[in-house]
Amino acid sequence: MMRAARGFWFAVLFAALLVVSRAEVxxxxxxxxxxWDTDRGMPHNTVTxxxxxxxxYLWVGTLHGGLARFDGVRFATYHPGNxxxxxxxxxxxxxxxxxxxxxxGLVEGAVVSRRNGIFHLEFSDTRTPDSWxxxxxxxxxxxxxxxxxxxxxxxxxxxxxxxRWQTIKPPGTGAGTRFYQDREGIIWYRRINARLARVRGxxxxxxxxxxxxxxxxxxxxxxxxxxxIWICTPxxxxxxxxxxxxxxxxxxxxxxxxxxQLAPAPDGGFWVLSANRLRKYVAGHWSVDASLSGVELKxxxxxxxxLADNQGGAWLLKYDSxxxxxxxxxxxxxxxxxxxxxxxxxxxxxxxxxxNLWLGLSGSGLTCVRKRVFNTVRGFDALPERAVRSVxxxxxxxxxxGTPANKVFGWGDGQLSEKTLPAGEATGTDTTVCPGSDGxxxxxxxxxxxxxxxSNQLTRPFSSQAIGTVVRAFYQDDDRMWIGNEFGLYCxxxxxxxxxxxxxxxxxxxxxxxxxxxxxxxWMGTAVGELRSYRDGKFTAYRPDxxxxxxxxxxxxxxxxxxxxxxxxxxxxxxxxxxxxxxNQTLWIGTLGGGLLHFKDGAFTRYGIxxxxxxxxxxxxxxxRRGQLWL
Length: 631
Known about the structure:
Shape: elongated
Oligomer: single chain
Number of helices: 0
Number of strands: 54
Strand content: 35-45%
Distance between the termini: 15 Å
């Protein structure tokens, strides 16, 4: 167990490390794909629609299994048998409006809403498939506008708490027609003849040619975050300024021809799809330019889908063709069967608030695709010592790994170096690494003592017998290195080693963890569930009232005993394995066997399984920028 200071180290738990001279992450291995089907609780394996409500729940519409609500672990199902408002088990579309209302379109043409946990039948139009619910167009006070699969509009006016619905059938619409409401409340749409039309109240206004456009054929329409209408023609990108369309095609590269599709991005930009290229428009310039020369999009009636993520990239998917991700640098990655994607038959899709991509598949269930937070480093020769016992980062940015044996490894710029402690009187185990002062690396082991690595040379600072051949914990404090083990507490300063004993007021203790607070007080955790502090030459001991286990009978008063404990008698019950002072200078203690402890003003508070911990063993505590603790 490694303990260090000064803010230039961090520790991570690793299950395994495969190493050789060069480290790399394989292309396509940066994504995790997880699948849920009927064996994992799904009511049906064909997912027709997906939506997320403000409370975080994922709603899943299925072909023959009704509606399901997913909390990440369990599915709660709704169907005609338990929800009379749902008169069909076949869900066609799920939508969520700005007020958090869930809108549910059924195969028979009924539209059902869910507000505040209550389902309500809004209206039913049996002229299917023309009347199937498709999109959410607009919401204003007392008015909701929805659209159908074949281009109808459903306008609901709220009167006495109930929506009264009106159906509008704009001319020139067809399968896949999308509607966009601008900042003035006017609804725009693209007619099947590739020209535009507008809906003002109950009036339909077909639009002719626009001056200033090089091409009058409108391939795609979109709305930005300021409710402005944008279009793309085969030759240009343009924005409606209230009077006319203004050409907004960037000039920082060659002209873009054959523009096919437009999709808005969260940062106010747009993704623009053309032949063999996907570009991102931001503030008048192309900020991303991705070649799609290796992307095969099969010709079909189903359109290509572009979903902009919140990291500056975009997802590209098409039914029976594939799934690709384009990052903010223009790199294109294919996600397919090698990554665990069970099918390319995409029926529905959703980017959730955390940036995860959810896919509803035909016959293959529900899939979540997300970027890996932790990458497995592959392509290395396997080491006999696969586990990593300790991790630290030195002042040069080199990561150092302690192993269960006599070796440590350094990793910087993808290059791996190996150091083996010199053969001697014993073979060490559980190697601990800690950055010291002046760029030195301290290495400690069980049975082989302490070493210093500097300028690629290993030296002993003192005899291994001086600390009983064991190092369990390091803590760098300015120019002092503190060492803890089953034989007590040691301090290395100005090339001198001090062992604290009863003469210093230190009773025998098995020291497992060491840290320091803002007032320069040293704190230690022991193997019997005892906390100790050291300030101005005085040691003080603290124990929780509900401590697990007891001290050896001969050493129940840890204040200033004079006897030496036999080896092994100062271990038992819970172990104070990790210490962390948060930004409020509250001490948190991770224990093995006793959960998480909070220590403030001499009082302990324990948090365990009853408070939500998955088990009673906390091996490390880290704090993020928001002050949250990670265990």
